[in-house]
Amino acid sequence: MIKISYTIGLSTIQDLGRDENYRHGVSIGGAMDRLALQMGNALLGNAKTAAAIEVTLFPIKFEILSSVNIAVTGADCAIELDGKQINPNWAFHAEKGQTLSLSKLNSGSFAYVHLAGGIDVPEVLGSRSTYLRCAFGGLDGRMLQNGDVIKSLPEADPFPPIAPGGFGAISPALALPQPSHASVGTNDAITMLRYLPAAEHDYFDKASLDALVTAPWQITPQSSRAGYRLAGPNLAMTDKLEMRSHGIVPGVIQVPPGGAPIIQTADSQTSGGYPKIGTVIDADMWRLAQTRIGNQICFQKTSYEEALAAYREMNKFIDKVRALSKAYRDLLK
Amino acid sequence: MNTRFSAFSKLKDQANISLLGTTAMLFEAPGAFELPTQKRIWALADEVQGWDNIKEAIPGMTNLMLTFRSPCEDPSELRNRLIAAWEKATDWKIEGKLIEIPVIYGGELGPHLHDAAKLTNMSVDELVAVHANRDYSVFALGAHPGLGYLGITDERIWVPRREVPVLSIPAGSVSIGGMQTAVSASPGASGWHTLGHTDVEFFFPHKENPTLLSPGDTVRFRVERIIP
User: Fold this and answer.
1) Which of A174, B48, B119, B166 is deepest in the core (most CB within 10 A)?
2) What is the number of structural domains in chain B?
3) Do residues B76 and B114 both lie within one domain?
4) What's the mean pLDDT in A55-81?
5) Do B77 and B24 lie in a common domain?
6) Where do the domains of chain A lie?
7) CA A142: distance to chain centroid?
8) With an 8 Å Cβ cutoff, are B163 and A258 in contact?
9) CATH number at residue B138
């Protein structure tokens, strides 16, 4: 059990989101960085779908109300337990009375604080994720506030208290380095997103299709958990299309007639009718989530086979973290 | 036909199947935007929902999106199977319910009423009369929780979506876009033209069936008031 002792808002409880409610118009939702969420659950031996705290604004502080194993994943920030520094992507034990703080964001956007067992809030439509727009899920459908007490669920396979110093995983940015970009090259300051062409790809004019893969795109402040709006060259179509509304998923790059693309993210609408130039592959969505507003991204077209391979590689990494963490836990027993 | 509508008249004579990354596939029915086609879409959704690795089959407006449990390994096989199932999909029999929705048109909560009247070369009163003078079928739910896509609007009020979507419109906003109309069930972004407002609630997250509207229902708008 932990208490939020200091927050300036926007942090919520998230898991892997809602399946099978698209038919009701309910977004997938869940963690913006699904890789980080899965890593934290893997480190603690939690269920894959266990919920964590998604931290969006820093600093945030927690008072430990009862001793618990914790993992912090996602954005690279300063993590301290009673003033003692802890690495990112780390699992550790916290004693009753200690204070955990996350501050000074070095890189990335979203950090995840996981409790062993996963966070205990009621499931709504099959998930514990907070959906702020309709005020349901998570803790009373709202962002976390000072004084909120967060409980954890009992562990299925209890982990002994993690030894002092804890243990951790290599950062995803190192384990899954971003491929080199055809025109930008290797540049960690620019996030490279691979995409597959979508239905209206070929309706865009040649200059726009070229611009899509050569220009750097800036993430604008009009971005949210629903979508990242980009600034860059205008994307134009050879002909105006007025389409019938259809389902869309996170990753879809919509281009409204104004010409500025929007990448759908976790809380994206379940359907829309703007032309789609492509879909960012699943394996690169965590990179987008961890790219801050004002920073740049670039696009590179990929093949279906490469998208599948990247997805498998990402899952292999999570499986490895889970297997190594289990080995560590068995050692402690 | 007015050139303003030329974009609406492009019809495909073949089903169009495309991928949304590796996590979803979109099937777009050929032909006109009409209820008989939508009934086949509903039938297709029923059929496909039971297939292996299909998480959900989600009807849109004369189209169907399939989401996968894990990335689809062989999209071309699924594509062929979908086309065969579409050929067999016929009418979907359903006794939907009738829902009446009182609307206050215009004013602060109907900010695009005048824009839409201008776009359609009608007076505000005419536009409202045309919008309310028709029973609409709930074609699909989507965009955000509980929102029903309603069709089909009278040709005289077909309007393109807005150039740039507005960042937020309130719940209960009655809007038109393309050949469609809808009532938003929660506040959020929209690329449509908002004509008015209703107090009816559409989404109940804690109920087993969380939505007021279901595909196949009929919606009737009642003009409560027009704020000029």
Assistant:
1) B48
2) 2
3) no
4) 97
5) yes
6) 2-174+316-332, 190-302
7) 18
8) yes
9) 2.40.100.10
For residue B12, the model assigns a pLDDT of 67
Do B115 and B78 lie in one domain? The reply is no
- Please give the residue of chain A at the shortest CA–CA distance from B30: A244
pTM above threshold 0.90: yes
Helices of type H across chain B: 35-48, 75-88, 113-119, 124-132
Greatest CA separation for chain A: 66
What's at A25, amino acid-wise?
Answer: G
Identify the residue among B144, B158, B169, B180 best suited for mutation to test binding to A, counting A beta carbons within 10 A and taking the highest. Answer: B144
Tokens of B57: 């089959």
Quick: pLDDT tens for B28-68: 999 888 899 999 999 999 999 999 999 999 999 999 999 99
Inter-chain CB proximity A27 and B144 less than 8 Å: yes
Tens of pLDDT, residues A19-28: 899 999 999 9
Q: CB-based contact (8 Å) between B206 and chain A?
A: yes
pLDDT-flagged residues of chain B (< 50): 1-9
Residues B62 and B105 reside in one and the same domain: no
Domain A190-302 bears CATH identifier 3.20.20.70: no
- For residue A260, the 8-state DSSP code is -
Contact of B168 with chain A, judged by CB distance below 8 Å, is answered with no
Tokens representing B165 are 């979507």
Pairing of strands A262-264, A99-115: unpaired
> Distance between CA A127 and CA B70 in Å, rounded?
18
* Residues B146, B183 share a domain: yes
Q: How far apart are CA A210 and CA B73, in angstroms?
A: 29
> Is A304–B177 a contact, with Cβ atoms under 8 angstroms apart?
no
User: What is the span of the domain harbouring residue B14?
Assistant: 3-88
Whether the Cβ atoms of residue B145 and residue A25 lie closer than 8 Å to each other:
yes
A318: helix, strand or coil: helix
Within-domain flag for B93: no
Q: Which residue of A has its CA nearest to B213?
A: A24
Please say which residue of B36, B62, B88 terminates a domain: B88
- What would the pLDDT profile of A180-190 be if each residue is shown by its tens digit? 888 888 888 99
